[in-house]
Every structure is written in C-alpha cells, then in structure tokens.
Fold this protein.
Amino acid sequence: MSDLERIKSKFQKIDSKRWWGDEYDVRFFLVNVLKKIQNSIVIDIGGGIGIILSELNKSNFRINLDLSLEDLLRSKKEFPDIEAVCASMNQLPFKNKSIRFVICANILEVAKTMDIKTKKLLLENNKTYYQTIIETLSEINKILENKGKLYLTTPNNKYYKTTKLDYNELNNSLLMTFDKFTINLFNTYSKFSDKYRKLNLTNIIPKALSKLYSREKILNSLLENAVGDKYSVSFFVEAEK
C-alpha cells in the first residue's frame, strides 16, 4: 500500500473531513522526512487525530499535543501507543532542552488567524509580528535539546491570498526565535483558478509525473530553496536549536 493510500484510509476511518485534500500536500513530504527518525522523543504540536505521528517509526516516543480533547481521544482510540497531551501551542508543558524533534504541521496559520481576530499583534523595528506565533516558536526553541530540530509546514499566502503567512512574516518570526533555520518553497507550479483547484498546474503536473516517477521522487522535486517573497503552495521549514 502506498503512503497516499495508507494515510487516506486512516482519514476515512477516523474523520474523512480532515483529509488534506491534495495528493501532493506538503505534509506527505514531511512524513517522508520524519520516517528516518528513530529512538527519539517526537512531539507533534496541533497533532489533531494523530495521522502524522502514526506514520513515524514505533521506536520513537511519540506525543500528540493538541488543545482539542475530542481530537486527542479519537487519536488515542485509534493509536493507543501515541501519548496524548492536552495543552496550548504557546504554553508547552515540557522541560527545557528535553525534546529531540518537534513537528508543527499547518498550525501557525491558525495562530495568525486567531491573533488577527483578537488583535494580539506585536510591533518591533517597524515590523508587525503575531504574538501567538512568536510565543509558540519561542516555546519550541526552549524545549528542544541542543541541536534538536523543528519541522514546520504552513501554507503560503501568495497562493491562498487569505490570512495565511507570507514569506516575510514567516522569516521574521523565525529570525526572532531561532538562530538556524532554512525556509523552502513547496510546489511552485502555477495557479489558474481558486474555484477549480483540479485544473491548476499545482495539481495537474504532479499527477502527470506520477505516470513516470515514484511519489517520493515527485515530492522531492516539488521542494525549492526560498529566496525572498516568492509564490508557492506551501512552505517547508527546518529549524535547529
């Protein structure tokens, strides 16, 4: 069974409404990266129903942290060997320098939307920051071991044109909280329509390539180094303590 079939079947069993909606979503690339991790403590912040953690090697001590008790109960029922912690993303209940890997998959944009609604904005050096995002990234930095890593994905507002993060917002937030990080663009193929997503090259080209290449090769090909505020569907970030 392919990663797509396996992950899709988990969504269908637990909650089909949570499906990522794109067969080449950046989180599939993330899962491939995470599969290399073994014998480590791994936390997924905003892990929801536990799909990403369920794909990791079972030699890891996996912790699903989410504010939704309902999601955590569903995750625990389906994946009993994944630990559940009910807490907020910007108040992490772990000791400093105690965690090897942290996952933050498509959750920062939720923090931005919340901060816009509640007007939790910070102004520093003529730049606007979102308070919950800064608090979350700072908390992650605190709990990471020396040389521990954060793997982060978030949609690019250049594609969505709503309240997602743009490159500058993401870059400035990371500059404030981490000394070492890289931002990559994921899927830079053109978008023609908001209404008919399946007609966009972002969907058409990866599916066409699937006739010739493996999913892993296609996912890897969708990653590009970010140089400035450029268009892509998503961002993929690696940050190190």
Notes: The chain has one domain: 3-188+224-240. The domain at 3-188+224-240 is CATH 3.40.50.150 (Rossmann fold). The mean pLDDT is 95. The chain is about 35% helix and 25% strand.
